[in-house]
């Protein structure tokens, strides 16, 4: 019998196809099991909700529908905003703060310590805590650049400050803004540098009186002036009022993110907390409730948040002490709260005075983005001058940006005519400080 022309099956081929089938079946089974866990169990529902909260508080909030659906996403956003407004309504009792007015040297004014999550076996977050023992040394410092924000490290160096953190909200197109379009208002040295709204309109406030009392909550500019507030900016939410935590259930509804927060204890000491986030292996960020618990353990009477996300940072000893989540490093910002040994030495800058249009920037004038694109396309930049704004829409004041940003999802930019003092532009019917101008965290 002739056998030489018969081709026998290749055992290696059969083994290879058998392994591939088993792998595909295992993957398919895993997908089915994971889907059932995520969509058919309370644990999975909680996980999807927590992830959606984190997405909602970034510039990509529209993608949260993939986790919970569009209807629930919108419901979550509305509930979060309403709750934040409720937390800010009641007026705090300033008489509960008994300020320690003893004189201190520059070296005695602040103390910076490391802090990390001590609840979980593997810490979920890390950051810095800064004590400021005389709140009267804190000033809101604004950018010294025309049409551009300024890095906090540069602000600290320019003013000779002992330390500083990022400040209030700003319009941030696609997370690539130039830091020159503040949202809400700015007060520094007793002057209203810029405001979007009439002096009688209540806005979310973080600020300090001339006597060093921290004010947090919903206040109008007229009320701030009456109460002696000298330095303030727009941000939210308040989480402690008169020594009582306002988050009584859940984690605060904003997921884990980088945070910048502050509080005042009964003796007047200010505690700034800056927590890194969005960095697996280093720090994922903290929840609102975790920050509240830290402040309550310190005996804080009133507490709230400043801008967060990629803007969160703390500078001390002339150096950046934290690790910002921004992919391009330290960001340009419109303002920051700085600690000065001689606060009277700082004279507020008003780079917005006389402007009829505020450009929030974008990809076209973001140095980090431009350098990244040049490398990707194999181009070498021979000029340090910023590219001309011909590739990206240039937002005008009052017009907003094409895409939702981290600080201002689908919102307008500051008023067409930024004004100082009490003569301020009134909000349009479609624009209100109680709208979701900013998320409870940012970028």
Summarize the structure.
With 443 residues, the chain is of the alpha+beta class.
Walk me through the structure.
With 443 residues, the chain is an alpha+beta fold. The chain contains nine helices and 17 strands. The strands form three sheets. It has a seven-stranded antiparallel sheet. Strands 3-17-4-15-16 form a five-stranded antiparallel sheet, with helices on one face. It has a five-stranded antiparallel sheet with strand order 6-5-9-7-8. Helix 1 packs across helix 2. This is Phosphodiester glycosidase domain-containing protein. Pfam families: NAGPA (PF09992). InterPro entries: NAGPA. Keywords: Membrane, Transmembrane, Transmembrane helix.
How much beta, percentage-wise?
Answer: 15-25%
- Find the structural class using helix and strand composition: alpha+beta
- Overall morphology: globular
Record the strand order, biggest sheet.
1-2-13-12-14-10-11
Helix/strand order, N-terminal first? HHHHHEEEHEEEEEHEEEEEHEEEEH
Beta-strand segment tally:
17
Overall number of domains? 2
Largest beta-sheet details = 7 strands, antiparallel
Mean pLDDT reading: 84
> What would you report as the Rg, rounded to the nearest angstrom?
25 Å
As a percent range, the share of helical residues equals 10-25%
Counting H and I runs of at least 4 residues, what is the number of helices? 9
**Distance between the ends:** 78 Å
Low-confidence stretches: 383-417, 419-431, 437-442
Biased composition (Low complexity): 404-433
InterPro entries: NAGPA
Transmembrane segments: 24-44
Biased composition (Basic and acidic residues): 434-443
């Amino acid at each position: 019998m002739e056998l030489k022309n018969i081709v026998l099956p290749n055992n290696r081929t059969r083994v290879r196809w058998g392994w591939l089938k088993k792998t595909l079946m295992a993957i398919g089974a895993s997908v089915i099991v994971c889907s059932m866990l995520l969509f058919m169990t309370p644990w999975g529902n909680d996980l999807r909700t927590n992830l959606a909260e984190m997405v909602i508080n970034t510039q990509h909030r529209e993608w949260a529908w993939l986790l919970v659906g569009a209807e629930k996403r919108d419901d979550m956003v509305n509930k979060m905003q309403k709750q934040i407004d409720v937390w800010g309504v009641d007026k705090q009792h300033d008489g509960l703060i008994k300020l320690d007015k003893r004189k201190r040297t520059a070296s005695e004014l602040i103390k910076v310590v490391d802090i990390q999550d001590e609840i979980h076996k593997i810490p979920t977050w890390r950051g810095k805590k800064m004590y400021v023992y005389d709140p009267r040394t804190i000033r809101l410092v604004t950018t010294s650049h025309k049409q551009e924000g300024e890095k906090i490290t540069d602000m600290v160096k320019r003013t000779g400050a002992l330390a500083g953190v990022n400040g209030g909200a700003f319009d941030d197109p696609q997370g690539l803004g130039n830091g020159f379009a503040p949202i809400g208002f700015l007060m520094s040295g007793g002057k209203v540098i810029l405001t979007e709204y009439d002096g009688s309109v209540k806005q979310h406030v973080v600020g300090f009186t001339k006597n060093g009392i921290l004010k947090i909550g919903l206040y109008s500019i007229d009320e701030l002036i009456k109460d002696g507030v000298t330095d303030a900016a727009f941000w939210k939410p308040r989480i402690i009022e008169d020594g009582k935590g306002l988050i009584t259930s859940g984690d605060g509804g904003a997921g884990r993110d980088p945070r910048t927060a502050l509080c005042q204890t009964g003796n007047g000491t200010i505690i700034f907390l800056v927590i890194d986030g969005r960095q697996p292996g280093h720090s994922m960020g903290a929840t609102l409730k975790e920050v509240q618990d830290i402040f309550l353990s310190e005996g804080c009477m009133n507490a709230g948040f400043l801008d967060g996300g990629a803007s969160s940072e703390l500078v001390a000893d002339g150096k950046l002490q934290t690790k910002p989540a921004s992919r391009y490093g330290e960001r340009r910002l419109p303002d920051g709260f700085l600690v000065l040994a001689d606060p009277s030495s700082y004279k507020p800058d008003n780079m917005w005075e006389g402007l009829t249009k505020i450009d929030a920037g974008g990809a076209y004038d973001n140095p980090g983005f431009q350098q990244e694109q040049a490398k990707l396309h194999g181009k070498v930049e021979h000029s340090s001058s910023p590219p001309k704004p011909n590739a990206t829409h240039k937002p005008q004041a009052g017009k907003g940006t094409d895409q939702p940003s981290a600080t201002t999802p689908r919102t307008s930019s500051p008023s067409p005519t930024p004004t100082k003092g009490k003569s301020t532009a009134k909000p349009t019917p479609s624009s209100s400080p109680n709208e979701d101008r900013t998320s409870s965290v940012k970028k």
